[in-house]
Amino acid sequence: MPSLPPDYAYKNAWFNTPNRKPNNTLFAYQQLEQTSCLTTNAEKNPKLEEVRVEMADMKVESRPVELITSVGSCVAICLHDSISKCGGLAHIMLPNSANALQEPLPFKFANTAVPALAKAIRGISRKNAPLSAKIAGGANMFANLGTNHLDIGAKNIKAVKAALVEQKIRLAGEDVGGVYGRRVTFNVASGIASVKCFNGEVKKL
Amino acid sequence: MNKQINIDAANESDCVETSKLSNDQEIDLDILLELGSIGAGHAATSLSDVIQQPVSIDVPKIHNLKAHMIPKFYNKHDVPTIGVNLQLMESNGCDILLMFELSEAKKIAAMMAMLSSIEELDPSTETSAINELANILIGSFLTAISDFIGITLLPTTPQSAVDTFDALLDSFLIKQSLLSESTLIFETRFKRQGEDAKCILMIFPSPELKEQLTQKSRVLFDV
């Protein structure tokens, strides 16, 4: 368990049932587990390989890499299978493929990207694997672009959420809206998406 | 006339290749490039007047790419950038975007505010200096074109935002991808003496504006 938080082993251990009282041996075991977690974290997590996802594209990985992309009004959709430790990231541009120009680009549109990404992840993990989703983006960068009719960021967010509900994928975290761009770094192994805003603020989803 | 279309991205299968364009379309692109060159020359002169330094321009280019290919094409994903956006009045969907790298913008703003160092610059002065610069630059660009072909082109007030290159660009690309299948970008890079090109002027002409400009110029150039 290289990248779990230190208290993970204790909270999720098989012995941690409500009826069971902790005793000394178990306590010693927990201590050991915690320290070993900490050391492996430092040793085994140097710098992960970074894979950039381009606009209207997606990447699915089972290796422990970081998928990165930069979004403004676009939305980055991170789907993660926590059991197989694989996941994928899609960078969508537009909410709906129906009223746009027809192009063979499933990852450009929210309503086609979510099913396609889920299918691609289940293709490398297993069929019907439960997925969780994290989304970021959908900002409105220039106020006069989006005042009246074309707040595409908000439309994108709405469409992505609708598509996730339709695919029965749980939304585990989001950082959307606002007036600033985001750099999304999605750790495929742990499922943690860290969102870095331009002012240096980092949010972990 | 210097024509350069898709030279960097010639191998990309998604790009609209020049060979696929009809003769008429090529002439249209030539005309737009020629108009742009006239405008860019004027803009460079006014930029050099403002910052009191010689400014050179790269040969203007026209790129005809699919909207989603453009961030990859520029490959400046996370470079901190200040972007100033103006739109053309009476021409829905024509965006003008002036992008400075943040470090370059600070230097230019300090020069415009007559400050000796970048440290003295406060953010509001910087923003208003850059907005003003965009006004001057784009104003002279449009005036040159207007004078030449006799169409009045008026920009809206400038609006600036500071963010990464990709984040600034993507709202425009989304808008363009709604309007047409491939995006036409007119691009000029300004260089200060001895520096890299850190300022890019991008114009996304809307189909109507393109039509209007080429119609008028065809008469003028007699093609």
Describe this structure in words.
The complex is a heterodimer of chains A (205) and B (223). Helices cover 29% and strands 26% of the residues of chain A. Chain A has 205 residues and is α+β, with helices and mostly antiparallel strands. In chain A, the strands form 2 sheets. Chain A has a 5-stranded mixed beta sheet, with no helix packed on it. In chain A, helix 3 packs across helix 5 (152-166). Residues 31-43 of chain A have low confidence and may be disordered. In chain B, strands 1, 2, 3, 4, 5, 6 and 7 form a 7-stranded antiparallel beta sheet that branches. Chain B is globular and about 55 Å long. Chain B is an alpha+beta fold. Chain B has helices spanning 23-51, 70-74, 102-112, 123-149, 165-179, 207-221, and strands at residues 55-57, 61-66, 80-87, 95-101, 159-164, 182-192, 199-204. Classes of the chains: A alpha+beta (205), B alpha+beta (223). The interface between A and B is medium-sized, with 34 and 33 residues.
Strand tally of chain A is 10
Q: Which stretches of chain B are poorly predicted, pLDDT < 50 over at least 5 residues?
A: 1-19
Tell me what portion of residues of chain B adopts beta-strand conformation: 15-25%
Roughly how many Å apart are the termini of chain A?
20 Å
Give me the CATH superfamily of chain B.
Answer: CheC-like
Into which percent range does the helicity of residues of chain A fall? Answer: 25-40%
| Helix/strand/pairing category of chain A | alpha+beta
The ordered H/E elements of chain B are: HEEHEEHHEHEEH
Number of domains of chain A: 2
Compute the number of strand runs of chain B.
7
How many helical stretches of chain A?
Answer: 5
- Helices and strands of chain A, in order, run as HHEEEEEHEHHEEEE
Q: Indicate the overall shape of chain B.
A: globular
Q: Could you tell me the radius of gyration of chain B in angstroms?
A: 17 Å
CATH A-level architecture of chain B? 3-Layer(aba) Sandwich
Supply the CATH class of the largest domain in chain A: Alpha Beta
